[in-house]
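Record 1 of the preview.
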Amino acid sequence: MNVPFCETPGQSAAVGVAAGLLAGGVGVASALEPVAVVALAAVLALVGETAGHLSCGDRQFRAAVERVRR
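->
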């Protein structure tokens, strides 16, 4: 099974760091439990990655969407 690497690793790194920092800041400001902070970071990362791929329309993302639609 051939699994290609991500075409946008910089985007993934930036989104992951931003999601972690934002979730951490919200967690500290509102005294969230660590599990809630991790869940928030995961949701933010998922939304950020999806938005980034939709806005860039990279080849791998378009191919993955086509595979899901079939």
